[in-house]
Amino acid sequence: MDALWLFALLVFGIVALPGMDMAFVLSSTLADGRRGGFAALAGIVAGGIVHVAMGTLGIGLLLQAWPAAFNALLVTGALYVGWIGWNLWRQPGALGEVDAGASRPASRTFLRALATCLLNPKAYVFTVAVFPQFMRPENGPLLAQAIAMSAICAFAQVTVYGGVALGAAGLRQRLVHSASGQLAMGRGVALLLVATAAWALWHSWQRV
After folding, report:
1. What is the pTM of this model?
2. For residue 92, what pLDDT is reported?
């Protein structure tokens, strides 16, 4: 239990840091409302469960042994998020044309969120650096440990990113009648996505 409490503190600290997942939940909520934000949140949580499964199977250790593969994941994730940000900058109306209904199917938002989470370099760094410290055979069956850690990760994501979605949904209502505010918010989220991608690329370059 002491190990799980420490793991929970680490997870909440990492999830609370602004990054790809948070930016995607924010942009999805502003574009499609609360429904879009919650669909994005569901995709992020599903991706988090996949990361825990990968840590359990030892894929994180495999990536650590092959730095080239790890850097490839960093670059792929960064380029994907940068592409989303660039398209949003070129067409701020994708975020700025706020209306009462959702402009994209929730299923599409869910799949894009899942892809964003799976390509998130921060999650792989966490898997490689932290999981081996808490997931050990002497602590009991690995499956039971994986389930407990998955529940902790999911709870942290729902708490933090759910709060982001609810806050952004309230902001979205205030932007309905402000064209300039919509444009500024679209540009701001685009810059956030591009800056996140640049940070990830820089991190991968330093590892070369």
Report:
1. 0.66
2. 55
